[in-house]
Specification:
There is one protein chain. By secondary structure, the chain is α+β, with helices and mostly antiparallel strands. It contains 21 helices and 22 strands. 36% of the residues lie in helices and 20% in strands. A nine-stranded mixed sheet has the order 1-6-5-4-7-3-2-8-9, covered by helices on one side. Strands 10-11-14-12-13 form a five-stranded mixed sheet, sandwiched between helices.
Length: 622
């Protein structure tokens, strides 16, 4: 070969290539994405330059990428008929690690048209990813508009130097041949290569063709293996619902239609397209907060990665779809997105778009939203704690069971609740328990049932944690009815003077109970919220609640013992009888029994259930 010479790389290539091969990329197959991206980039450059110099097409304007597998020689060749490179450009672009020809090309252009063009490959080291699977890489290239004998040969084993030579190349463009390592046979499998191209480069606008041998005719056919048109880049008005559904099913391998989707293109300081879906069914590991997210990231239609976490908060991890950005900055490997201002702006926009999509579903299709809530409601309940900015919007989407309905279905919105508030009611009342049945039958609700005041019934494990962050809605504060609050007593029909008279009458009785129980309870008080129950326990305003204590215990955190307020119903017949018992031992048995009953109702368990049973049996025999 003429003009052959050996050169050293202009950087610490041994160390950098070693880093790339063993550390930079998380999976090997992305080298094919990188090389196809570079080929697409070369085609875009040619199209732009040919606007002013049509002769650059050399009579062939059908741009494409071709892939040729040679199993005998163990080679994989990716070729394009794009802009190509001359000797100087080869040295400049392939002789230095992290040198991006595309980036330099854009920088050299003054025209706004080229800066707005959809060019791929502004990331610097894509070409060198070939060494992940190849122990030698050969490049043949000729710049468009040059003579055939001005082709350039480049070859390197990635060990610190490369070889250059002049060759004759009839077609313009670049052909990159990878001499595969011994353990990379999967890249000699035509079906595996097809799948990789379909996965990563299906929506590149440049056709990708692969050579298929026709054994009968002894010929080679070039079959197109990518769609070469991204659905999300088309006009929404031209896309049918069935196309959206099929696209979703294909990329997520889901047999169910999505519940709803949102397709939007944003232009301005930031340019991106988003296509978001809400699935009809939750995956089995959805409840794990470490579950992978459903967003895919594309840059100018090139697939970059799955499970993008930075663009969507964790409580919306069920959202599937993609974002295709024109100007998103990426790190050297394309595998990690830089957490910067642009990323945060995209996250904010996509979060709002997702919440709007849910709001639309809740407003116009109650049946579908009910299905969504059944599948993903618990995940959405993480929202009020994670996203203070959108807390009220999330609250509108929450659904609850309540005393208004006779079933456990969570279908009551907070707006529904507000519309049914009784005159003079200034709080949103709720109760949390281990189950719907326990919540619905709680003695804490007796006065509310009597007064016709609706109470939200919370029984999911996450509810108590959610409500510790969701303190108000539409100007109304939330009130847990199992927490002591004097305003609840004021809901009773008794006048203030009646309360004072009752408290004076029961003062010795209350004092007697306090002496007996000592520090087992925080306080002993009369209550006017009970109708059929002799007593209850409640937590003080600043005390940890029973359900929150259970939640902490479930995740292995130590919590202090909850000190309850023991509330006595002065109107209950049993209380009045116990008040007249003179025998201290007999009196103590009854008071302990009432306290244990109240604790059992509140906590669902007792420290010593056998003692409780013996106490009941003993009192039954008296």
């Amino acid at each position: 070969m003429k003009g052959q010479e050996t050169r050293n790389f202009q950087s610490e290539v041994k160390e950098l290539l070693h880093l790339m091969i063993h550390s930079l990329y998380s999976n090997k197959e992305i080298f094919l994405r990188e090389l196809i991206s570079n080929a697409s980039d070369a085609a875009d450059k040619l199209r732009f330059r040919a606007l002013s110099m049509p002769d650059l097409y050399e009579g062939n304007g059908n741009l494409c990428v071709t892939i040729l597998i040679n199993k005998e020689k163990r080679t994989l060749t990716i070729s394009d008929n794009g802009i190509g490179m001359n000797r100087e450009e080869i040295i400049e672009n392939l002789g230095t690690i992290a040198k991006s020809g595309t980036k330099a090309f854009i920088k050299s252009m003054d025209s706004k048209a080229i800066k707005d063009n959809n060019l791929i490959g502004q990331f610097g080291v894509g070409f060198y990813s070939a060494f992940i699977v190849a122990n030698k890489v050969t490049v043949l290239s000729r710049a468009a508009g040059t003579l055939p004998e001005e082709g350039v040969f480049w070859e390197s084993t990635g060990t610190g130097e490369y070889t250059l030579a002049d060759i004759e190349k009839k077609e313009r463009g670049t052909a990159i041949t990878l001499h595969l390592r011994e353990n990379e046979d999967s890249f000699l499998d035509i079906w595996n290569v097809r799948n990789i191209v379909s996965k990563y480069s299906d929506h590149i606008a440049l056709p990708v063709k692969i050579a298929v041998n026709d054994e009968k005719k002894k010929t080679i056919n070039w079959e197109k293996i990518n769609k070469a048109q991204a659905l999300w880049t088309r006009n929404k008005a031209e896309i049918k619902d069935e196309e959206y559904k099929e696209f979703y099913k294909n990329i997520y391998h889901d047999s169910n239609d999505p519940l709803i989707w949102s397709h939007n293109r944003v232009e301005g300081k930031q340019e991106y397209t988003s296509l978001l879906y809400i699935p009809a069914q939750a995956p089995l590991n959805m409840w794990n907060r470490d579950n992978s997210h459903g967003l895919k990231l594309y840059v100018n239609r090139v697939f970059i990665m799955d499970d993008v976490e930075l663009f969507m908060p964790n409580y919306l991890r069920f959202i599937r779809g993609l974002i295709d950005s024109n100007d998103l900055p990426l790190n050297i490997s394309r595998e990690t997105i830089q957490d910067n201002r642009i990323t945060q702006n995209l996250r904010t926009s996509l979060t709002k778009r997702s919440l709007q999509m849910l709001e639309k579903l809740a407003k116009y299709d109650i049946e579908k939203y009910s299905k969504f809530w059944t599948e993903f409601g618990i995940v959405l309940k993480e929202g009020p704690a994670e996203d203070h900015i959108n807390q009220q919007e999330i609250a509108k989407l929450l659904r609850f069971a309540s005393t208004h309905n006779k079933e456990s279905t969570q279908d009551v919105s907070l707006n529904d609740y507000l519309s049914r508030m009784v005159q003079g009611q200034d709080k949103i009342y709720y109760i949390s328990a281990d189950s719907y049945a326990a919540a619905k039958s709680s003695p804490h609700l007796e006065l509310f049932y009597k007064k016709g005041i609706e109470v939200l019934l919370l029984s999911d494990r996450i509810d108590e944690w959610m409500m510790s962050y969701l303190t108000n809605f539409d100007g109304k504060t939330f009130q847990l009815v199992s927490k002591f609050d004097e305003s609840i007593n004021k809901l009773s029909d008794k006048e203030t003077q009646d309360h004072k008279d009752t408290e004076k009458l029961f003062e010795p009785f209350i004092k007697r109970i306090k002496t007996l129980l000592d520090n087992r309870v925080k306080e002993v008080r009369l209550t006017y919220r009970l109708i059929d129950t002799p007593c209850i326990v409640s937590t003080d305003t600043n005390e940890i609640t029973t359900q929150m204590a259970k939640l902490f215990t479930a995740v292995g955190q130590e919590v202090p013992n909850v000190k309850y307020i023991f509330e006595i119903n002065p109107d209950h017949l049993l209380v009045k009888r116990i008040m007249n018992i003179q025998d201290e031992e007999h009196f103590a048995e009854w008071i302990n029994l009432l306290l244990e009953e109240a604790l059992l109702v509140e906590r669902g368990t007792l420290d010593d259930p056998n003692l409780f049973i013996r106490r009941i049996n003993q009192l039954l025999m008296i």
